[in-house]
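**Protein of interest**
===
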Amino acid sequence: EGQLQAPVGHQICVATMLRVALVLLAVARAAVGQTPCEGQIAVKGLSSSAYLGGSGGSVAGDTLTIKHNSGFSMFSECDREEWRPEAIAQLSLLGKAISFDVDLSKVGCGCNLAFYLISSPAHDTAGGFSSGDDRGGQPPYYCDANMVGGQWCPEVDIMEANDHAFQATPHNCESPMNKQYSYCDRSGCSQNTRDMPNAYGPGSTYTIDTTQPFSVRTEFPQSNGALAGMRTMLSQQGKQVNLEHASCDSSYLAKLSDAMRDGMSLRITYWGESANTMAWLDSPPCGSGVCSGDAAGDATISNIEVTEGAEVAPEPSGPSQGAITTAMPAPPSGWVSNLGAPWLCHHYMGNQQETQWCQAATFEDGWEFKYTGGVESLCGPCWCCKRQAMFAEAPTMPAWAPAPAPATTKAPEPAVAMQGPLLIGGMPKTYLAGTGGGVEGARLTVKHNAGWTVFAEREDSWEPANIQEFLLLGKTIVYTVDLSKVDCACNLAFYLISMPAVDMAGNPSAGTNRGGQPAYYCDANMVGGQWCPEIDIMEANQFAFHSTLHSAFDHGGKGAGFGGGGPGWNGPRDFTSEQYGPGASCIDTDKTFQVEVAFHVDGAGSLAAMEVTLMQEGHNCPLNFRVADYKGMAEMTTALNAGMTPIVSYWSADDMLWLDGKGGDNRGACDGDSAKNCGDSVTISDFSLEAISEEPVAQPQPVAVPLPPTKPALVAVFVEPAAMPAPPAAAGPAGATCPGSFEMPGYGSVAIVPTGWAETAMSAFEVRPGGEMRPKMGSRAYFADACTAGVYDHNQYVALKLLGKKMRYSLDVSGAGCGCNAAFYLTSMRQNPHKSQCSDYYCDANDVCGESCAEIDIQEANMFAWHSTLHTAQDHGGKPAGYGGGGPGWSGPRDFGRGEYGPGAKCIDTNKPFQVEVSFPVDGQGSLQAMEVMLSQEGHHCPLQMRIDNYVGMGELSRALELGMTPIVSYWSADNMLWMDGAGVDGMGACQIDSAKSCGDSVRIYDFAVGDIGSEFPPPAPSGPLVTSAPAAPSAPPTTSAPSAKPAPEPQLPPWAMPDRVRDPGQAAPSDSSLLAAMRSESDAAEDCEDCFERVSVMDFVRKNLLSGVHGSIASDRLSPVSSAALVLLACALLAAAAFAVVHGVRRRHGGGGATYTMLDALVPTASPEDLEDVEASLNASVFDPELEFEV
């Protein structure tokens, strides 16, 4: 600085730059792994010393004081110069426990003080240590189950907490290869004090008062060398809160055994920003609290100790949601109404005390509670939703929960004796197992709050093979019922379920965490922890009668009958309270009456309708109603064909208004419900079973009544995507043509059937010679064995049986920007006999055309995002993998990042075609184990791999793949596609906004092949870039003028411009937010170089070809300072020009013969010929290097 001979102002400028450089140097040094060691920390129970490395805190004795936005890792050695992987301490905690004291009284809402274990250091594909790339601020060799630092590994969150919430979560991973993990369970199996009333929070009213220090102890018991449980205990002044993790399946925890045995490293961090960022942890009870200022004060962790633990996991000492030494508080006062059966709305003001109560209640007095915070949710716009748990408390598994463990060969003996036989006409001897009531001949008496299951044999144990299954398809069941003591708020239910439940392998599953339900129980509301189809023949009392069909995941189902409703909605209204009720004209419920239920079939043997008739002696007006045209009829048919088990239960609730309330039209019967009014017992008798002798004349359909609003069965992490608008129905054969066909190795000839024949609103679907498909924007088409122009026949669709097989194809999505969706997926269209609203038998998991069926999205993609998703027929959200998307409070999948997938990315450069391979491996029983997707690209050596397993609907999808699914190709767009390609709450997605106008006219998908897993595919066909305009490139070298086939006024192009890149004047240009450029380099002006043609953004062009060129040229002294300055000016000018003009090319001459030509095609619709001339003159005037020349 002292040697500079320059004005003082320049000296200050240079001095400032030097200081900045020193700061950047320090940052760079930290980035490559050199970090200070804060010093030794005393840890009891370790055989060696322990040190903490990191920053943002201090160590004294056995205490760590940590500041906000800081992190520390534990080391076995202290190296102040280098972060060495072999020095990272490994804690082997299998069969042991770890404990510590914590003071987080100053860690407020929106903050997270985390104490967790990870399998760090991470490893690369060769099994060596991997420091990682793009770590996002994490230390070298970092990894976790959310790939936060770019690398996967198992993670056990012992504590993620602030002063309002405490959560503990184990996360397992798929088995590693050469010590490198490729996928982990991001969500984990968490348990949070939010689900426990008055358990944890600031103040003396809580069991754990977070204004004071408290102790944490986590045990990892083992059994036969495998992790058998995880229990976290919070204690303070003689009081204790236990997180038992009883909902974590034993097989899930067992996957962590090797990591726990080999040793995991300890990481302590303190972070947090906005309320939305941390809502997953603390909202509720937290609201809008921000982690800053006084709410982000220092925290301390001390007295860390490792001790021996139990060899076998202890039995949970309390309810599955956790155990507290203090009593549960009573629910808050307030009134209850229902906004969506089976979920009801519990209204209150949402103040702090009541918010904590609802959020923490989970289960109480036979009810399941869900806090929703006043938004549209399970039960409409409500603060707190609840539903009756029927027999007992039953937790609801999230969509990502692991499958239940396989059942043992023999379930535990029930605490009840068999009753019977119950005499049923048309059936052999039938026995009942249950409590509360009894059997006498043909009469069953059911006590209040009791239930019965039908068995074929009388046994001392609850054997799944003896559970009676009625084959009712095409048959009628008749019985007599006495509801005279079943008042408002009471529910006598007679229903069918696909019991015994089965596991993923198809074996009987007794279930875990059944909440009081019998072994092998299942239903459509997962009351006992397991899903299956359900047919409610009767849910009734004196004032209401409901009959409902439910496919396995459809809580609400489709019903008929009379009664119920809430503010703004009504239950079924097939008859009235004058016709049904005490003293009514048709069915007087003060007396016994008969119920007849018929399951009619169509010509194909499928369920056509459930028809119910209520009759009473002395009354000549039977009530007849039917449930037909249900989207789940195919599943109901399968269930009835396989046999379903009858269940009888009698229960009550103070808010049964969804069944018997007045509703929005005030036509229902009950003003309010009181469980105290239910009679002690009811009778149901005189059962008989017979075949339907004659198909009745179709009954006129009643006026459709909106069903209660219900939450889709499994939409828990990802917001339901916007569905593609349903295309209009086919207009007939006039003008219809079949697009074409191709040969698919491993299958044979495939014809393409487009949707929307003869509809001008639908886009064309082009099939080129060789099988290359080019779906135009707005098109959709199906793989078929044959195509009959203008005719849709579901029997012609391909039923591709991919279970245990794999499929390969090539894809080009260049031009499909933010807001575009190129989709290739499978649905059960071949098995769908209903034409759908689109008239082409289309079905999917989002009811786009009104028909539901299983759906497997192999790809939903554009240049910036990729989603692969499994959906059962009723699961709109599904379970995804891939990259991209999100919204307020959530993020889409993050299996890779924008550096690996996107325009110019290192693994999959979406400017160019790439290959997709999908496989569907099976387990030892032949059931679907996972969907595995791999993206690869020639010239790149880092294929992207995704795997989706442990999905709750694997059984359904396994059957769908075994029967065969129809491949579908579609290309559509929307201005709200951010669920797929948006930035998400973590900001890691690519697109900030979507624009449907920025989508290219078409995409390409081609080179399909099918084969066995492990076999070799034929090599993919070579392919050039996507050409969006119609004319082909001329065979002769192009001239300086545009081809005569192109209409004027096209601007004249330089000799190196390709005619097939010229756009029609009327063609929409890309939006400013997603300008696309085409770059072409040649060694000779006359040489046509197809292979070196690629698309880049204007910014990327400047960065890669100009700014990087300045750096490299200066380093090698190839350019004079004047030339270097000219390149910088060129970069600035080019960026400015791209904002308003069409920059067709930049030509740079080299001394001598050869030349390099670069074409930049960045179109903006406002450009005029005068603009072009001005830009060209300005650019050339700005550059003082004679070797550079612009042509615009």
